[in-house]
Batch of 2 targets.
Target 1
Amino acid sequence: MSSEIPEDGLVLVVREGCPTCQLIAPVAADLEARGALAAIYSQDNPDFPAGLRVNDDRHLEVSFRLEITIVPTLIRVTGGVETSRAIGWSRREWCAIAALDDLGPGLPEEQPGCGSLSEEPGWAEELQARHGETGLESATLSLQFPEDPFEIMDIRGWSDGLPVVPPTPARVLATLNECTLEHDHVLGQIPPSGAELTVEKAAINAVMAGCRPVYFPVVLAALDAALDPDFAWQGLLSTTMGAGVAVIVNGPVIRRIGLNSGFNVLGHGTRANATIARTLVLIAMNVGGARPGGTDRSTLGHPGKHGLCFAEDESDPAWQTLAASRGIEEGRSAVTVFGFCGTSIMNVETARTAEDLVASHERSLEAMSQMRSSRRGGGVLLVIAGEFWRIFRESGWDRARIEAALHDATTGPGGGTPMFESGDLLVTRAGSNAGLFSTIIQGWGSGPMGSQPVTREVEP
Amino acid sequence: MTTILLDPTAARASPARQRVAGHRSLEGLTVGLLDIRKRQGDVVLDHLERLLGERGIRTGRYAKPTFTKPAPGAVIDRIASECDAVIEGLAD
Amino acid sequence: MLDIDRMGTPAVALVSDEFASGVASWSDLHGFDPAVVYVRHPIQPLNEAELRGRAEDIVDSVIGALTRS
């Protein structure tokens, strides 16, 4: 590979896989034969065009530096400065640049070119990282073969215990390209240390958690929600009760990024579900300094502390979405964060009516409230799967009716103290359609004295 | 072949800080007791307050609204203006 | 603790002795080593007399922490 670009003359960039480059191969040969060509670069095959002195640009460095977007591109350079450029094949333009008037006899007057390989997804960020000005400010660690980045990251304590994806500049740039915020924009102070979280650090940790770049706007919305004082993230990260963060997603972004709302929705198997909330865990550890046994005093913890993210099932228009119930305009994407201490499945095989379901849930919620010294104080996120929802719907119930009935049932017939304040009982729909199940996601401390759910719109 | 990794951690939030010096004696001074609102912590603070009083130390009581969140700035300001020293607890 | 210290007021934290490692981590993260008096664990399940005992155990250390230069 030669990265010395000539300072004077004609420079041509081509690739064999492009039909227009095939078309103009005789013109390239003609230019070289006349001594008019200072250099020719091939992006894919250094033996193309055959028989010419071709420079190998399979690393795409020259293409990147010359900002090639289309091949073929013919450039006139004078004293190291580009003076003119033709993109694709145009006899008129090529003749003008080459100062010749008889190029390409027998060829059509013009033919559009093909996309440059340096513009392919993935390559653009890689080239930016290798040869460009990245603007990234974080310290870097250079590992030489055979050092294994996965082992090094583990040794440095950058992980939640599972392997993390190496945050290379190219991956981080690709993630940063998914948002309009500047790299150094401060998103907030991360507990427990209170260290500032920049968009760049968020992107690094998102990469490490395994997020595809397209998930990043959802991660940013979840972070903004978690940093709301109402959410009490610091408390969730310190409590002996062991609290994790659940992220429930609504809106068009669900399909765009491939979030699961169906089978095994609270389990494994889908990358977006597995990595978005995990990013918050890594940020709390890497930026905030939260460590189990350090400031994280979880006595037992629970599997959901790895982070839980899922999409609400929005397939039935009769169901008001969680986001809509919390003031987000229909058709917008949003996240709701919920601090939680575990999940418990409910199975009511004999349920036939909405009232049956409310009675069963009341008993379970009552039992679950016994884990506290006071009966009150823990919020609940109830996840209703398909068959339960069918029963409710056939009874003519909607979200508001379900929430009100559960509130009344857990308050008791004579009035008494309600188990839930308004807003402490959230209901969502997810899971597959077969199976008479719901899952109770147990909150931590609810209300203004504890951790309140927070909803934020995802920036489009 | 070189792999470049970007550091995911924050630089230290602030340089190391020396804590302010204590008083020569608490005689004639006011000590604030800040209840962080963990269960039973108030009872320990009640007894501690009484024991300090028996030694001629003036006291004042303050509380965070909830242990789950940092103390609001207004509470800190009030303590700093009214007290010469502070006891905060009880974290368990 | 850091907030109060920044106002120039000496302060001491009462912490369960089970949480000593948590204090060490907190100090490391904040670059600040607070004055701490440890209280024997547990606290939450104790009765009134036992809680009074805990207060008596620590009162001298608390005064000491606030009067140390």
Target 2
Amino acid sequence: MTTHRLQLSSKIMSYIAGVSLIISLFVPLWRIELDAPQYPEGLALQIFPHKLGGDVEIINGLNHYIGMQTLHADNFIEFTVLPYIIGAFAFLMILVGILGKRNWLNIVFGMFVVFGIVAMIDFWRWEYDYGHNLDPNAAIIVPGMAYQPPLIGFKQLLNFGAYSIPDLGGWLFIFAGLLLLIACSKEGNWLKKFKKK
Amino acid sequence: MQLGAFSIIALSTLFPSCKPKNATGAIDSDAAIKAYVPPGKHDEFYNFVSGGFSGQMSVYGLPSGRMLKVIPVFSVDPEKGYGYSEETKPMLNTSHGFVPWDDLHHTEMSQTNGEINGKWVFANANNTPRLARIDLKTFKTAEIIELPNSGGNHSSPFGTENSEYIVAGTRFSVPADDANGDVPINSYKQNFKGHISFVSVNQESGEMNIAFQLRTPGVNFDLARAGKDKSHGWFFFSCYNTEQANTLLEVNASQKDKDFIMAVNWKKAEEYLKAGKGKKVKVRYAHNKYNEEAHTATSEIKTEVTVLDVAELKDICYFIPCPKSPHGCDVDPTGEYIVGSGKLAAVIPVFSFNKLQKAIADKAFDGEYEGIPVVKYEAALYGEVQKPGLGPLHTEFDGRGNAYTSFFVSSEVVKWNIKDLKVLDRAPTYYSVGHLTIPGGNTRKPNAKYLIAYNKITKDRYLPTGPELTQSAQIYDISGDKMQMILDFPTIGEPHYAQAAPADLIKNNGQLKIFKIAENKHPRAAKGENEAKVVREGNKVHVYMTSIRSHFAPDNIEGIKMGDEVYFHVTNLEQDWDVPHGFAIKGANNAELLIMPGETSTLKWVPDRVGIYPMYCTDFCSALHQEMQGYIRVSPSGSNVPLTYSVGTNLPPKK
């Protein structure tokens, strides 16, 4: 098992996956779009690996009515750690291509999936905290109302419609994961095994 | 009995044919569709309209006629704090001191290669002679320059095809500023002179500068146009009162059969200027500039101008005879034809630039007028439009070979062909039209879908409002052979000339949505609540105040004393489009402030009695706008109440 060498196509896919992650370091991973009657042009919060982007100041200004904490990149350990983790995965994926060993491929893929799940849980926890930990002295308090944005998809929050979707970096992440998945399944003949069952 | 009935029927059918009905009903059924812009949709053109005696410039959308904005230019505007805030007061400074009103007659958009470039609009002040530049990135008055040696800047602000110069010709000739002005009025011929300023425009910054003035014989200058394309380098000014009357002008200045169009070779004037032929003359004029980063205007009094005397320096000026007190003097898009509009003339003369050049070369002159050669009428004439109408005033062009002339007396617009000088169509106006506008109608590339007529009289056109009625404009669709009126719309002040440009050109010119707070260089800006403070400097108290939805910081101030002058320097901390904040305080003897996001404005306030004064935000900024308020405590002079200020927790604390 350990001596299995990767096919050329799998190596290429690993390289591409690694390069995709490197690109994702420089582009936003996720975006939350906000629309309201007063904002026909829309507002966007962009989450980069190392910072927040988009209309952060405007959103912070609006959120003070409902007592939401203001968003500051400094308050998130994630923005310090994330670039290194992504860099490490990019390095590992390229390493898989160079070494060409199948078990390395499987391990890196497994770690990447786990990382993806943990990241989304962390994102949800973060959204929960912002949506629920409200200033009790806020000007607008709607009993029972929380302002947690959706993890993915659309949700109406008072006059704002919030739409949460992956941005370019997020899609690159998904693309890298899919490439590794295809490589793993080809190498391990998962499709045949699945059919035999 | 039968005969009686018959005669009544006969009379009733006869009478309508005796007195033609007013043409009010002559509106085509598709007119409404053509002028209709659905809610939420944008107009096709911006229309920059002179506000006449309001002193301001209004901005309309075409073809809907919807008003978008009134830009304060030469008159104070308490609504925007213009002329009331400490920052904008210098804009209205002149050599006569602070002048809070003027009469804005004409607008001129900046051009590149004879096409509108969407950067600036220029405007003239007809009373205290001045020239203004409005910046179309902010829709604010960016600069005002006073014109020395002038009395009534009417022949202005017309520009060359790259806005090298905007001209400012005096309506009233007056003794020069450095001459003794204490002379009998009937010594006009000896002592009164005309002056035309050539104001250069910096193509990057837009900054204006009086490059030189032409000293001319004493006449009245009315309107002007620059040559274009082949005639670039020349400028044409209509002159009236060549009789040099100085009383009862309506009679005494209407005696001569022909007045003049003055052709100016400004390239030649530039050569004389370079050769040092200009004379430095002592004058006093204000030059006011608004600094967009400091959000503050400064006024500088300048003391010198260079004058070229056109009677002494040959080859700059030539007079072309033009029938009866010409108003408009308009150059067609090719630059070849110059159309004179004599207010009392029965024909429209069209002059040829080529023929004029030949006449000058051949010296086909008819003597001189005060030292200036007078070109023979026929030598410069291309032809005359016969029986065009009564009282021609002003002509615009469609770039398809046609001209459109307004007729004040016969109250109509007449379309005629420039080549064969034949009248093609007439359309009534309601009533007594002055100027016309076709978008780009004065440029090399008109955008001739609509023509707008600016009227002097409205009478029965709108719901009456007592003795003073609304002013109005009318839009005609001129895309077809026949002009079709599609809309009437009311205007502010009295509209004179206006210009229009395609909406996209102005929308995409780099227009600002906010001022960046980080770039705010106002010396007393508070760029965050942590910078908000109150500082006493003798009896002057400076409040560095911030506003953000929905509170001021500070919103409690105590320790102000009678005899203090309080300056509220309010910075709008918002960085979001369309979130201005206002500021008003009880008893202020001036106006409110209206502060755009990222801007700092200052209101001076001198409390007149001891007590508690409320202040509040005047622009409905948010759901909690009504909560955006605060208090100032004013104590007697000599009181020992300490100066304190706070927001959130009252200071001083309750005992």
